[in-house]
């Protein structure tokens, strides 16, 4: 029986393998989270050996953080592209682009998994810092450094005609993170 000569697959650079690992990690972490995703499944999806993941990243958490950074980079580039492609309604263009980008559910689910893993100090720091950077970037693109949106109106308790629910103020990182999330969510809500 004669075997056919199959040309060997081209060797990937370390950067290309790193990118493949991060892309595979986004898919796997989106489903199973930081603590539920074995590195073997990431390696299998990326087509590399598991020890190579640790050679490039050092730990599973570093892979998770790199995947989280990649997702935030994608969101930021989506916002910037939308803002650059319009000559007027920058915020509306960003909102439409963001709604379209949510079709990539893995990115959205990875963000949710990051929120779930925020009891880890490093994950919380990356998620907070990158979300805050997105918030500031959107504010700058709209033409000013002032807050881009006031969630509550002048009555400090009503939005539209709904009565406000009494809430305890949050303190520390959770309060800051909650304010960023409220502002960005309320900002894009009228676009849907």
Spatial shape: globular
The CATH class is Mainly Alpha
User: What helical percentage do the residues reach?
Assistant: 55-70%
| Helix-and-strand structural type | mainly alpha
Question: If you had to describe this structure to a student in words, what would you say it looks like?
Answer:
With 192 residues, the protein is mostly helical. It has a single domain (14-150, 170-191), classed as Orthogonal Bundle (Tetracycline Repressor, domain 2), CATH 1.10.357. 66% of the residues lie in helices and 0% in strands. The longest helix has 25 residues, at 60-84. The model is unreliable at 145-164 (pLDDT under 50).
Features:
mainly alpha
């Amino acid at each position: 029986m004669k075997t056919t000569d199959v040309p060997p697959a081209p060797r990937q650079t370390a950067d290309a393998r790193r990118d493949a690992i991060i892309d595979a990690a986004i898919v796997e972490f989106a489903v199973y989270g930081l603590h539920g995703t074995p590195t073997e499944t990431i390696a299998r999806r990326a087509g590399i050996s598991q020890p190579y993941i640790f050679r490039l990243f050092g730990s599973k958490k570093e892979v998770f953080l790199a995947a989280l950074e990649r997702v935030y980079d994608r969101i930021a580039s989506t916002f910037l592209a939308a803002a650059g492609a319009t000559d007027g309604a920058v915020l509306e263009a960003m909102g439409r682009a963001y709604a379209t980008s949510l079709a990539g559910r893995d990115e959205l689910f990875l963000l949710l998994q990051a929120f779930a893993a925020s009891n880890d100090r490093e994950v919380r720091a990356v998620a907070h810092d990158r979300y805050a950077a997105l918030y500031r970037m959107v504010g700058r693109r709209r033409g000013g450094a002032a807050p881009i949106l006031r969630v509550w109106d002048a009555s400090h308790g009503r939005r539209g005609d709904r009565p406000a629910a009494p809430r305890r103020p949050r303190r520390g990182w959770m309060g800051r993170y909650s304010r960023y999330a409220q502002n960005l969510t309320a900002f894009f809500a009228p676009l849907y």
